[in-house]
Write a structure and sequence with these properties.
Elements (H helix, E strand, L loop, with lengths): L19 E6 L3 H17 L7 E6 L5 H11 L4 E9 L5 H20 L3 E8 L2 H6 L3 H27 L1
Parallel strand pairs: 1-2, 1-3, 3-4
Helix pairs in contact: 1-5, 2-3
């Protein structure tokens, strides 16, 4: 398989020594909990020590950004993963919540300067959400890849300046 130049192969991902924070919405727990289990399994499989994966729960997806900011103010993490599940309902509430979560998480990531992986699933229904639970594994891989890529970039810049 051929990978684009900036993309690491899953076999090249190395999470040894990383501290990863996971913030998870309890709303739609049957979905977010399954995503969490896959993410934890994947992170450990990539070499992240289980004691270096810290999980914090929040009521729903709307609260993810606030907690991400609070967590980063009190502790150091190489990356965060935010998990939530917003399903379409009879009103536009799902749009408001998912947009607020996306914008808030992105704002915290840019302010903090660390990768925060957006693992908020926006689904039309229960079946669609269940079919996308594997996103938990992808989010874990993305967190490790982003940390590695940023470190590699910094290393290249440091070498050029030397």
């Amino acid at each position: 398989m051929v990978y684009p130049p900036a993309l690491l192969s899953p076999t090249d991902l190395d999470g040894r020594g990383l501290r990863i924070g996971i913030i998870i919405a309890r709303y739609n727990w049957h979905i977010t909990g399954a995503m969490l289990a896959l993410a934890q399994e994947t992170l450990v499989g990539l070499g992240v020590a289980s004691e270096d994966v810290h999980v914090v729960g929040v009521p729903g997806s709307f609260e993810l950004a606030t907690m991400a900011q609070a967590v980063l103010a009190h502790d150091h993490y190489d990356a965060l993963i935010c998990f939530g599940c917003v399903m379409k309902g009879a009103t536009r509430h799902d749009v408001v919540v998912s947009d607020a979560a996306a914008q808030g998480i992105q704002q915290v990531a840019l302010s903090a300067g660390i990768p925060i992986v957006f693992g908020v699933m926006c689904a039309e229904n229960q079946q669609q959400a269940e079919e996308r639970v594997d996103r938990g594994r992808e989010c874990a891989q993305t967190a490790v890849e982003m940390v590695q890529t940023i470190r590699n970039l910094k290393h290249k810049i440091d070498q050029q300046e030397s």
